[in-house]
Amino acid sequence: MTTITLTPLERWRLLLGESAERTLGGSGLSVTVQSMDRALEWLYGRDTQGDDRDVMSRERSADLGASALAVPEWINQVHSLFPRETIERLERDAVEHYKINELVTSPEVLKRVQPSQALLEAVMRTRHLMNPQVLAMARDLVAAVVRQLIEALAVELQQAFSGVRNRRQHTRFANARNFDAAATLRANLKHYDIRQRRLVIERALFNRRSTRHLERWQIILVVDQSGSMLPSVIHSAVTAACLSGLPGIDTHLLAFDTEVVDLTDERNDPVELLMKVQLGGGTDIQKAMRYAAERIDAPRRAIVVLISDFYEGASPHLLPRIVRELCAQGTRVLGLAALDQEAVPAYDREMAATLVAAGAEIGAMTPGQLARWLAEKLKGGRAG
């Protein structure tokens, strides 16, 4: 796609919409910029309050009625007019704010949309509306997003679970994370050029990493599949898939509403797993935690990660009791009110405080932060 350079006047015109036409000096927009404006108006013109709109700010007005563009035509225009980051924002607003479900239920649109987590979430919410042909195409979109998430998390997992730097030994294998700057400086001082006042590095030194042997651990992810937890459900599936590939770790994945579904056998296929998850329903957290407790083999080498907003539908006294029993037997319990890229939760703070008093650790993490937390606990055993 050819990069479009906008003048300051054109940028303000796109930000503010047609209502700013007269103020900004008439309709001197190029054909391309007019097309961009119509594409923005098609979406944000639906919002008469001016809230949560526009790609570059939140001020675009909407005096025009929606045009006759169909969703596939709009997608084609957007992909030909805007850069990738803007396309992702427009598509996210379309499915999240304006609930334009055709973005993920139309074959013509699915051929063009940019894979993103927002669209993955939309697929999971609307797959019951899809015919078999569309569902197959939607699965490809889900697979593309999951692949992106796994690739990103795999790097963080590798860093978190790799051995510690051994500063007494060096290796020929170059890795920026292991670069030994002090030793490199000392080893190359003899190559200092006094005249040019420059140090010539003839040999860079890198620390060797010592791999720690990890005894076998159980990690049990217990995931609330209520609708508000959808981003956390997605990242839990991806995290389980990545963890299951690490040596010495026995990973379990449980999903729950008022019933518990053991997804452990499907943890290596997160795409299939996500296409089967049933969102919504009530919440019985204590039942899920009781199920997790029954699957623990060695209590002092087990970690239970409860991913939930902690709004308990069952008796509020049962969940703290189970957590207290788990902690008393030496099992670590981590409660996450969010497991996603933002880690900004909405949760029952009173129940969270009760679980802390029962021995749990409570927080909100990105998948990378969870990986580092787990690595610290597994490498450190029961310390801390």
TrEMBL record:
Species of the source: Tahibacter amnicola
The protein's name in its UniProt record: VWA domain-containing protein
Superkingdom, taxonomy of origin: Bacteria
Record InterPro entries: LolB (IPR050458), Uncharacterised_CoxE (IPR008912), VWF_A (IPR002035), vWFA_dom_sf (IPR036465)
Residue span(s) of domain VWFA: 216-375
